[in-house]
Automatic annotation (TrEMBL):
InterPro entries, per database record: Coproporphyrinogen-III_oxidase, rSAM, rSAM_sf
Protein name (record): Unannotated protein
GO annotations of cellular component type: cytoplasm
Listed GO MF terms: 4 iron, 4 sulfur cluster binding; catalytic activity
Ranges for domain Radical SAM core: 1-128
GO biological process: porphyrin-containing compound biosynthetic process
Length: 281
């Protein structure tokens, strides 16, 4: 921690996932809740001023009370930023293989209840939602991730890293061994690349901004679909966000932003808007 701080690192992210030992065991994680407190304490002692704690909800066997205890425990540690992600099943992982063999997988309804609980507790504790799975104290949004979500350019550092510049996207070799070998032999670490055509760039930018509190502008959203979304409680018009402002936020004085219920079905909402001609006008 001291070495990081002395090198100028001012933000760390810890993969907490849960503060319930049996949930950690179900996830195959080897740390315990005491490690989390120790890590946060050491980071603060070293002078790291910005911390994010990552959580996972919806693990089979995790009760809503388990999840509440994790949220309350993490809030008590007072990080500047909290991320909460729904557990997903990746086929190639041990968990994915167990689910494929008949073991219980994540339940959509329980995950929805867990998400709404997180939104309520985090908001009450002063954490502002600004992207589907991310909340922060005022001014503590993750600038790194905002570059992705708002369509900026970013470089690659490390194995499997992705980069983007001016409509070109590229990615490095996936494994640490191959990455190290290429660095040591002075070879390029890029594994592949693609040029993103203009229409797809617009769709991607639209889809990513809709996931944030920047939202999308009136000129980008099909009016008939917007009416249905608002009537269904899935979206609302708000003043353009300042904390996570999109590139066109000065163009209109309001933005269409998903409600907590709308965030639960963000993929479907985005698809409806795109099919209606949003983002390509």
């Amino acid at each position: 921690m001291d070495a990081y701080a002395q090198a100028g690192v001012n933000r760390l992210s810890f993969g907490v996932q849960s503060l319930e030992p049996r949930v950690l065991a179900a996830l195959g994680r080897t740390h315990n809740p005491e490690n989390v407190l120790l890590a946060v304490t050491n980071a603060r002692a070293a002078g790291i001023k910005r911390l994010n704690l990552d959580l996972i909800y919806g693990t089979p066997g995790e009760s809503i009370d388990d999840w509440r205890a994790t949220l309350e425990g993490v809030i008590a540690l007072a990080p500047e930023h909290i991320s909460a992600y729904a557990l997903t099943v990746e086929p190639a992982t041990p968990f994915g293989q167990r689910v494929a063999s008949g073991e219980e997988g994540p339940d959509d309804d329980r995950q929805a209840d867990a998400y709404l609980l997180a939104e309520g507790l985090l908001k009450a504790a002063g954490y502002n939602w600004y992207e589907i799975s991310n909340w922060s104290l005022a001014g503590e949004e993750c600038r790194h991730n905002l570059v992705y979500w708002l369509g900026g350019d970013f470089a690659t550092v490390g194995c499997a890293a992705h980069g983007h510049s001016g409509g070109r996207r590229w990615w490095n070799v996936r494994t640490p061994e191959r990455f190290i070998e290429r660095v040591e032999t002075g070879r390029d670490c890029i594994s592949g690349s693609e040029e993103i055509e203009a229409g797809l760039r617009l769709e991607e930018a639209f889809s990513l901004r809709l996931r944030t509190r920047a939202g999308v502008t009136p000129s980008e959203a099909a009016e008939s679909v917007v009416r249905d979304l608002i009537d269904g409680g899935l979206a609302k018009w708000v003043p353009s966000a300042a904390g996570a402002a999109g590139p066109r936020e000065s163009e209109a004085r309001r933005a269409l932003v998903l409600t907590p219920q709308g965030r639960l079905v963000a993929t479907d909402v985005t698809a409806r808007l795109l099919l209606a001609g949003a983002a390509v006008r």
